[in-house]
Predict the 3D structure of the following.
Amino acid sequence: MWFFGLLLASLSVRTSHAVFKIPLKIYAGHFNSSVQLDLRPSQSKSTSDEGLSLASDPSGNVNFLDMINNLKGDSGRGYYMQLVIGSPGQTLNILVDTGSSNFAVASAAHPFITHYFNRDLSSTYESTGRSVAVKYTQGEWEGELGTDLITIPEGPSGTIIINIAAILASEDFFLPGINWQGILGLAYPPLARPDPSVEPFFNSVVLQTGIPDVFSLQMCGAGIPASNTAADPAGGSLIMGGVEPTLHRGSVWYTRVIEEWYYQVEVLKLEINDQNLNLDCKEYNSDKAIVDSGTTLLRLPENVFSAVVEAIMKASMIENFSTGFFDGTKLACWAKGESPWRFFPKISIYLRAMNTSQSFRITILPQLYVQPVTDIGGTLDCFRFGISPSTNGLVIGATVMEGFYVIFDREQKRVGFAVSTCAENSGVPLSEIAGPFLAESVTSDCTSGVSIREPVMWVLAYTLMGTCALVLVILIILLIVPCRGHRDGEITDESSLVRHRIK
């Protein structure tokens, strides 16, 4: 799938005691980042103190232990779970995405998927007759809306009536090597298409089963090479209804959900090896900062990305490193057994705590952002850079989330982070969490003026269009009135807004 042109290089690595030569090879060729469905008191109490760390939900509809390891996949191909749709049931693998709000399944044949949901074979499927389309950072699809029954084999018990988008046509959405046939959007109603009246999947689950409006996510692909083989590593866990304490170590730190569309959070600063980038905090949140399991990489606004790359190059012990590695056009390869991670710095993201005068930091080690992808000839291990520039906000994607057990506590409008039990290499944790710290710019709002909610944008756009149309009508009337005593025809504005948010 990949095409590489060989470029041999030898990099000097300098320490305080000596200079070492590290054999490094740079391979040309853009690495497909796959499923960027382009997928937010001084210390918060641990989950056990908040009544969420339960072996089962009091309603009896959910057993958290049964949900452990209910995900498969990895960050390159996406994390997915099994759902049974329709009557009789049809089993499909569905991508888990906290950065969108539609439940959509393949409903027509596609060369990259093995099977699809056949609506004609389900006696309980009902079409609404409404069309729907969604465009992501990578890929898009269109189809029709309907409803049907679903069951979650490793989730809350019972049968649930769910809004389903039947995907009838798509482009760059289903990709080679994936093993899923649909997407499960877990974000809020404002992101649902074609409009917020389409109740998202998890909202329906909460209403119909009575479980708490909380879910938590552990993604266990840290350090596992992205691959196009059919075999899947043990992917992780999606706990619906609460928090499973065996999936994290230490306390959970919470940050407020700024606005309920994406899981939008407030980033205060970034550090490379404990060195502050010293950027205005508004730059980190321009135009939003979100937590999105459906995005493969850590995506940063362009100015922030440039500053991070510059800081990594300064902090790294590797000299004259190819910029192609950082812009995603080249892979860096070392001789087998020669780990590159010790030459790269750790990256810390500071989030505002629930006590807004304080913050906490989540830190990832280089094993999470210098990612193994393939080997060449059995002699070289090759790596990609797990960070990319973004034109539409900071995205805490799988690159970071794989280091943490992430709790989406919708009841209390917050997102929690704790060190994941599966984010380790040879027993060494690949992530850290610490706090409290005095929040920088305590009295200021790092998100003010950087994000406009989409419905508000619709209103503003339509208002401006209406105003322009009114002015246009008045001008035309003024032009034709001297010549004619009446209006001839109507003024029709055929322009339209962009209907689909690009994540």
